[in-house]
Target: Beta-ketoacyl-[acyl-carrier-protein] synthase III
Amino acid sequence: MAKIKPSQGAAYARIMGVGGYRPTRVVPNEVILEKIDSSDEWIRSRSGISTRHWASPEETVSAMSVEAAGKAIADSGIRAEQIGAVIVSTVSHFKQTPAIATEIADKLGTGRPAAFDISAGCAGFGYGLTLAKGMVIDGSAEYALVIGVERLSDLTDFEDRSTAFLFGDGAGAVVVGPAKEPAIGPTVWGSEGDKSETIKQTDSWEAYRNGRPEKFPALTQEGQAVFRWAVFEMAKVAQQALDAAGITADELDVFIPHQANMRIIDSMVKTLKLPEHVTVARDVETTGNTSAASIPLAMERLLATGEAKSGDTALVIGFGAGLVYAATVVTLP
Ligand SMILES: CC(C)(COP(=O)(O)OP(=O)(O)OC[C@H]1O[C@@H](n2cnc3c(N)ncnc32)[C@H](O)[C@@H]1OP(=O)(O)O)[C@@H](O)C(=O)NCCC(=O)NCCS
Model:
């Protein structure tokens, strides 16, 4: 049997830089209320959301990604040509093929990296981060770019009072590269396909093409079932990620859960018994739920405002349609 040379990558991987892009248009609850019977007070108290951003026609999945990724590359101090892989996580790019990652890679001037899209809902960032870490350690990419990007306003039924207020648009990105010591912990991830009906697109593109239904497909969910799953099951996954990294809640500086609902965030903080000193991302208030973009957007904001700082130890957890989830402990760039 011929001997195959082992891969030669870095000993460890780290997040080197982060960038975000929020569309220019800020949409307050009042705009949502034009189409549904609800109130600003109800939306704020049930979800914690007061505003979200909606993308203009020019703020495409590609354009927002290039903005966010450009900032992440600048923040990391590397050149675009050094990037060996571009992973784009999204559920709201409406062209099946080619992957939007190749176009984004080209616009960034990256050369000829591996480039592909993944669909992992609101866990998309964690899935991408895990792949990127593997690539850096394996040596198949010295630097890998992970982008979470969504235009969920395109997938929202503004007349559905159970979802109309939840979603927003935006892009977040990180550069993952070599490290001398562990800076991205083991990922605790998985899927629960038996619950695939709890968050989904109302109808397939095929059904829509065939004229059934006439309404453009949108995201729909069993709000309470998802809420309970997030609160009970995801707190356990978050704890497992802490244990896997050998980090106690006391040692944690920052908690960046998927920005789905403020009540879910509050409940997780309680269940995990996070001490007062832990900074908790609450970006959902002004950004809404941006699915794959939510964690890197929240990370970028915490660092930009000084609420978190470089070198802080952060627990990140994403969860959503699939149902899927991914949690890990990282050192902030
Ligand atoms: C969507 C969500 C905010 C709804 O909150 P909730 O407390 O579960 O609300 P319910 O659906 O149980 O509805 C409670 C009541 O409010 C009403 N209601 C629903 N939407 C409303 C709205 N927009 N405005 C006012 N009332 C509303 C319901 O009709 C119901 O009334 P009833 O008690 O008279 O029947 C919440 O379920 C949620 O956040 N779920 C998880 C969402 C999520 O994170 N999804 C993505 C995961 S990645």
Notes: The domain at 188-331 is CATH 3.40.47.10 (Peroxisomal Thiolase; Chain A, domain 1). The longest helix spans residues 223-245. The two ends are 44 Å apart (CA to CA).
